[in-house]
Amino acid sequence: MAKTAIIEAHGGPEQFRIVDREVGEPGPGEIRIRHEACGLNYIDVYQRTGLYKMDLPHALGMEAAGVVEAVGEGVTHLKPGDRAAYAANPPGSYCAARVMPAAQVCPLPDGISTDEGAAMMLQGMTVQYLFRRTTPIAKGDTVLFHAAAGGVGLIACQWAASEGITLIGTAGTDDKCQLALEHGATHCINYRTENFVERVKEITGGTGVDVVMDAVGADTFDGSLDSLRPLGFMISFGNASGPVPPFQLTTLAAKGSLKITRPTLFTHLAKHETCQQMARELFEKVESGAVKIRIDQRFPLEDVAEAHRALEARKTTGSTILVP
Ligand code: NDP
After folding, report:
1. CATH code, domain with 282
2. Domain range holding 83?
3. By three-state DSSP, how is residue 17 classified?
4. pTM higher than 0.70
5. Are residues 192 and 178 both part of a single domain?
6. 161-220 pLDDT, tens per residue?
7. pLDDT tens string 74-114
């Protein structure tokens, strides 16, 4: 049996219930893993509220790390006793142990702790695909990155700095801006007190940035387009302030032949080999010291509702883990 956080209906954090669930044995292509820590991510909020729908009741959570207990037929990259971590479908990582598909579970190198693994797989592989797999971004390019002091944000700040990319961050308080600067952002704009479009224009000498990475969504979308240089690239990858409303495609022409994509990590890591390669690149960044994983909040799994409240209230910085 394994302690598991489930929801039976979409809604607020009060929907969480902790139950004991049968874990069972892994079938072909599956493993059984005992979790030491589970990662908290904003996608969990979308799944809880029903912005991203799922059949209920369902356990939530897309990320965790722990020790492999058993492997099913055909699994060759993991064995019992291995420390491993993952960001993967199906949801259900908020638990002490589970059986799940093995393909996206990655062996953890010695230099990375299990807690770090749980805190970084989803946010870190997201940064990997944003910088390496979405549009060419080279040393000297300038990126605007919203919510730069968050989980994805602090990893992005460090990743950009390690590659000579200028990152202009935004964040909701001066303290968060300071944190982003300490993690490698070249500039950081408090977008609650300053007009970020005007500040970006000032910083870039009127030109605009090459790429915007925007997961704040509704509140920032228009300003993000206005912050791009002609032919610039908009990556809209989340909705922390609400989904982006429908817009006219001709807007992209009017604002300077802009390009736009709306990606999700789970397309990028769908293939086993690609996922393992993305994880290895992330692990190299962390083991080299270029990227440090900040776990600023830890909650017992039983307090998952409190953890969700803190994330939605913009009270967290860096990564958050739940301890089962
Ligand atoms: P964060 O730790 O970044 O938390 C979200 C942050 O968004 C808040 O701390 C807050 O920072 C900012 N924010 C702005 N407006 C709001 C609002 N109205 N309500 C709540 N927060 C707001 O979360 P994650 O690192 O887990 O994820 C960051 C974003 O990236 C999310 O939108 C997530 O969905 C997206 N994402 C997308 C992926 C993809 O592949 N498409 C994969 C991974 C993450 P501040 O106070 O500084 O404004």
Report:
1. 3.90.180.10
2. 2-123+266-323
3. strand
4. yes
5. yes
6. 999 999 999 999 999 999 999 999 999 999 999 999 999 999 999 999 999 999 999 999
7. 999 999 999 999 999 999 999 999 999 999 999 999 999 99
What type of residue is 276?
Q
Q: Is there an atom of ligand 1 within 6 Å of 278 CB?
A: no
> Do 251 and 141 share a domain, yes or no?
yes
Main-chain dihedrals φ then ψ at residue 97, nearest 5 degrees: -160, 155
Beta strand pairing status for 319-323 and 105-107?
A: unpaired
How far does residue 147's CA lie from ligand 1's centre (Å)?
Answer: 6
Say how far apart CA 248 and CA 35 lie, in whole Å: 45
Residue the block writes with tokens 């969700």: 308
Nearest CA to ligand 1 atom 15: 241
Decide if 212 is inside a domain: yes
Same domain, 154 and 247: yes
Confidence of residue 264 (pLDDT cuts 50, 70, 90): very high
Nearest to 231, CA basis, from 246, 210, 217: 210
Rg (C-alpha) for the chain, rounded Å, is: 20
How far, in Å, is the centroid of ligand 1 from the Cα of 135? 21
Domain count for the chain, please give it. Answer: 2
Atom of ligand 1 at shortest range from CA of 268: 40
Measuring CA to CA, how many Å separate 107 from each of 28, 47, 78, 306, 319?
18, 27, 7, 30, 20
Buried b (16+ CB within 10 A) or exposed e, 230-267: eebbbbbbbbbbeebeeeeeeebeebeebebeeeebee
255/139 same-domain check: yes
Instruction: Decide if 130 is inside a domain.
Output: no
Assign residue 220 the CATH number of its domain.
Answer: 3.40.50.720
Answer yes or no: do 30 and 112 share one domain: yes
Distances (CA, A) of 185 to 7, 148, 169: 37, 8, 6
| Cα 10 to middle of ligand 1, angstroms | 20
CA of 40 to the centre of ligand 1 (A): 11
One domain for residues 218 and 315: no
The answer on 314 and 207 residing in a single domain is no
Residues 190 and 114 in one domain: no
